[in-house]
Amino acid sequence: MYAQVAVDIPLFTALTYKVPAILADSLEVGHLVQVPFRNRAKTGLVMRLSDTLEDPSIASKIRPIEDIVDSEALMNARGTEFLQFIADYYLAPIGQVARLALPSFVRLEGLKHYRLADAPADGAPETDGLPELDDDLRAVLEHLAKSKESVACKDLKALRKGLTYTHMSTLEAHPRVEVTYEEDDAKVKAKTDKFYRIAPLPDGESLDDQRLGSKQLRILDFIAELLESGRENVSLTEIREAISAPHSSLNALEERGLLTMTEEEVYRDPFDREPVQPPEDHAPTASQKKVLDAIGRAQAEDRFEGFVLHGVTGSGKTEVYMRAIRAEIAAGRRAMVLLPEIALTPQFVAVFRAHFGEQIAVLHSALTPAQKFDQWRRIKRNEVNIVIGARSALFAPLEKIGIIIVDEEHDTSFKQGEGARYNARDMALVRGKLENARVVLGSATPSLESYHNAKSGRLTYLAMPDRVADRPMPTVEIVDLRDKDEGPPGPSDVLSDELLKAMERTLKDEMQVILFLNRRGFSPCVTCQSCGHIFKCINCDVSMTYHRHQESLRCHHCDYSIRMPESCPECSDPKINRQGTGTERLHGHLVELFPRAQIARLDRDTSGGKKLGRIIRAFRRAEIDILVGTQMVTKGHDFPGVVTVGVVMADLSLNFPDFRAAERTFQLLTQVAGRAGRSHDPGHVYIQSFNPGHYSLLAAREHDYARFSERELQLRRELAYPPFGYLIAIKFEAANEGRCIQAARDYSTAARRVFKEDKALAESVFMLGPAMAPLSRLKGKSRWQILLKSRSRQAVRKLAIGMLNGVAHFEPNKSNYRDVRIIVDVDPVHML
């Protein structure tokens, strides 16, 4: 038997290994294995098993698998098929894709550690619970008994020649052997808690005979009250929250036989501090019912179908999601919900927790390693019915998936920016098809690709054009800044009279305001007034942003920063001009204008750690009157007290050198406008612009997605841009600009060779470049790129593959590219 193993190396195909006879009966697709690679061992994922080789002549050269790392397969055959599809479609190394699906605590070598817990009080021997303990395992156990710290599995294997991971897994059944996963000195292990029950008193005795202290009586009363509600036991965590310092009293009660204690594994809850509102039961609106009926027909037949749910802000898309998920769970199936940035929408999780309780697991990058460890194991053990997470949650080991929901499907955060550059929105449809599940792409502003696919019949279009309870959409006014009189520096530079008056009325009515400005910091550009010197980042081809609170200049791309200089480094003149306005400067203006108002700022500088949740909760409780923020304020929040929204500089996103600039502007404006008027009070939105006649702004003013999409799709059709064309960007990054340019030229030469051999391909694919990237230098690396564009997906892929193979053919050693990072980005969403 032979195995195709995905090893984390920059190769596009899996490597072939022989399956030794000792592993033949236990090895399955999806197992993590240890294999020899060159002169060392590496871990890899088994992708396929076969009895034959395509080229039998190489059989003698194939090396055997050394060991199975974990006795349980990490995914099934559908999971490995899904990974292979991603690798093939995005032209990515299969090992790189496999890394996406495996959390770090299982995929990396040397992470599994063992330690021996303290011996039980009754003096039970260390070998209890280990059947047929052989000499190898006895040696390991003796070593653990001598060691005070946990010992890596690979170090234990080195004790005895021939000791395998599979053999070591026998130790995990021992009650005193603890397994942890340790990475970068951060220990990740199972968390336990103590649980207490009241022990029955001997016949004829009562608590009055026990002479208990007041705290002991309080503890017993507290436990008894919870047990009467149907609970089996009460955790130490709950007792601590109700009664301070209960430990000595609990120990005394246990010693006197009044309490029994057990220690059990518990999971860390990343949202345990989030308030959970009691679920409200709403009758579905007519449009919600129509949508649910359409999804329900596919559910009843248990077949794959992709839907685009186009619902305006406040139309009740979350209610549709919950009802559709409840139907899947009732049928014995599970659900997956993908959000663009889950850390920004804790209220979404709170709503789901209110309806589904502990059936939910949450996965995203903001979790601690310990929390990820717990959540992943709950999913793998089939202990949850719903997985909610960011794009990486798409790879969760969830079985029996009935529905996959991609909320805010238009958001570019679903596109992976490093490694295998997959788009979770598109791959959700692929996984849904493999799982025979329903896939719902929901948004108030669907991406033009999804919208076009729905209108052309590839997906099913579902519309919810009205807000719930017949609440009106907010009125939108475009404020023309072109004729604004020159005035002294101050608030009037960035806030129009119309917006200021609306804010005054809102505060007088004790309602709330959101101001959206997609620039953080105090001033985005700092120049010398005398010589014109621009303070630029030494690593990137961008100007540095002045942050007044830190009195520093910072690059928002590489995070390089310096102290704000007192004079120009070129001419030594102290006249330094801070140009433009960011959220920090706007916040300061507002404090001057509205000294009695509570004003907060929500951007990356103010939302680190737990600050984000505190700001959002305070604003929802109306403890903040005005919230100033970047895109963070647009991400699906539900603030019932907001009636006024101001877009301070609507032109910022329009000026990007990107064919999607108009689409992103329309989406941003529509999403931020949707924060207003979500309760009983009508909302008003003010969009300030120097280009008030732009079609994306006019369509946003009328909440007219159809008008915008018709105009934008016509432009895309003429220029063969998505969804009418297909793009592949090949990007080159290197510290040495000359090598970067040479690599780009070599790849373009390879493309011209392909064109010479295939005239039809030359006529159907357009190659732009090689050219310097719009951001020509980033994080110390020069950047060049080639853009391939065609109306045929097959043609543009054929050229890209021909280029990659062509370079390998005439430059087999690729010695010129060892210090050049070459990135293949299929269906790019960012052109900078």
Task: From the structure above, extract its key features.
34 strands, globular, GIY-YIG endonuclease, 6 domains, 23% strand, 32% helix, alpha/beta, single chain, ATP binding, Arc Repressor Mutant, subunit A, 832 residues, primosome, six-stranded parallel sheet, seven-stranded parallel sheet
Instruction: Please describe the biggest sheet, giving its number of strands, its sense, and whether it closes into a barrel.
Output: 7 strands, parallel
CATH topology of the largest domain: Rossmann fold
CATH classification, class level of the largest domain: Alpha Beta
Distance separating the two termini:
47 Å
Radius of gyration equals 31 Å
Query: Which structural class do the helices and strands define?
Result: alpha/beta
User: Which CATH architecture of the largest domain would you pick?
Assistant: 3-Layer(aba) Sandwich
Question: Please, could you describe this protein's structure?
Answer:
The structure is a single chain. This protein has 832 residues and is of the alpha/beta class. The chain folds into 6 domains: 2-100, GIY-YIG endonuclease, CATH 3.40.1440; 112-189; 191-266, Arc Repressor Mutant, subunit A, CATH 1.10.10; 286-469, P-loop containing nucleotide triphosphate hydrolases (Rossmann fold, 3-Layer(aba) Sandwich), CATH 3.40.50.300; 475-524 and 580-717, P-loop containing nucleotide triphosphate hydrolases (Rossmann fold, 3-Layer(aba) Sandwich), CATH 3.40.50; 726-826, Ribosomal protein S10 (Alpha-Beta Plaits). The protein is built from 24 helices and 34 strands. It has a 7-stranded parallel beta sheet with strand order 15-16-14-17-18-13-19, with helices on both faces. Strands 20-30-29-21-28-27 form a 6-stranded parallel beta sheet, sandwiched between helices. The longest helix has 21 residues, at 737-757.
